[in-house]
C-alpha cells in the first residue's frame, strides 16, 4: 500500500531548512519563468533506472572479504570511503556501475585477487513537498510513485492551491521545471522538491 511505503518524517518535516524555504519563495514569485517539462520524456528517462546521489545508503558486499563488506552513506561530495581504496565515486552511477568502480580499484591496487562485488541500495534520499498542501515536509522515498500520489500523501491540495501546475526541482534538470498536473503524471524521483504554489485566481 502507498500509505505504508511512504511515511513522512514528521520530526524533521516541521523544520524545513532555509534552503528549501528559499526554494518555496522563489518558486512562488517566479512560477511563470520556469520552463515547462515534457512529462513523457522525463518519465522515459526515469524508467531507465535510478542514479545514486548524496544521501543514499548502500550495502557493499565484497565476497569472501568481510573487512571490506559494509553499509555506506554517499557523502555530500558524491563518494563513499572504503577501507584500502579510500574514496569511490558514486553520485550519478547505477549500483552496478558503482560495483564496477570498486572492483577496478581493488584489482588495480592488488588488494583482492579477482574480486566479486555487489552494491545494493538500502534507502534512497528523501523527497520534499512544500507550499499549498496539507502536510508539507520531507518524505521517505521507498518506491515509484506519481506526482498526484505524492501530493495526496502530503494531505492533498489546500483550498488556495494552484491545482493546474506545480514546480519540481530536480538535480538532473539543473533547476526547477513547471509541471502540468494531469495525465500523464510525472514520476517522482529521490531528491525531488515539489512546490505547490497559491492560485492567482
From TrEMBL:
It comes from the Bacteria. One of its GO terms (molecular function) is polysaccharide transmembrane transporter activity. Pfam families: Poly_export, SLBB. This is Polysaccharide export protein. Signal peptide: none annotated. Residues 127-178 form the Soluble ligand binding domain. Residues 46-121 form the Polysaccharide export protein N-terminal domain. Keywords: Plasmid, Signal. Transmembrane segments: none annotated.
